[in-house]
Amino acid sequence: MLKSIPSIACAASLGALLRWLLGLQLNALFPTILPGTWAANPTLSPEWRLLIITGFCGGLTTFLTFSAETMALLQTGRVSWAMAAIGVHVAGSLLATTAGLITYPLLSGR
């Protein structure tokens, strides 16, 4: 476990920086549409999954960012967009989780 910590920390830092840069660039271009999340390839080795999914994507798609972007919309009076963003994030998360729960047994033969 201790050997994994530096990889996760580095990848999380890079993911957080990229998320911040994407937010600066994309939010300026598309102020009413929040940047989406990235998907990772589930056929990677456990080491690469740890690096990419836990580290990089974990730093890239934090709940704090979701909250901050929603608050920014609310503070600028775009309540409808904030509510839509909340709905899309929550519904998208539930749909992706459901898809994963359905897909994993099919792919793993369980």
Automatic annotation (TrEMBL):
GO terms for cellular component: plasma membrane. It catalyses: fluoride(in) = fluoride(out). The chain crosses the membrane at residues 47-67, 79-107. The keyword Metal-binding applies. It holds the Pfam family CRCB. Na(+) is not transported, but it plays an essential structural role and its presence is essential for fluoride channel function. Na(+) binds at residues 58, 61. Keywords: Cell inner membrane, Cell membrane, Ion channel, Ion transport, Membrane, Metal-binding, Sodium, Transmembrane, Transmembrane helix, Transport. GO terms for biological process: cellular detoxification of fluoride. It comes from Pseudomonas citronellolis. This is Fluoride-specific ion channel FluC. It comes from the Bacteria. The lineage of its organism: Bacteria, Pseudomonadati, Pseudomonadota, Gammaproteobacteria, Pseudomonadales. Belongs to the fluoride channel Fluc/FEX (TC 1.A.43) family. Fluoride-specific ion channel. Important for reducing fluoride concentration in the cell, thus reducing its toxicity. GO terms for molecular function: fluoride channel activity; metal ion binding. Its main location: membrane. Coiled coil: none annotated. It is found in: Cell membrane.
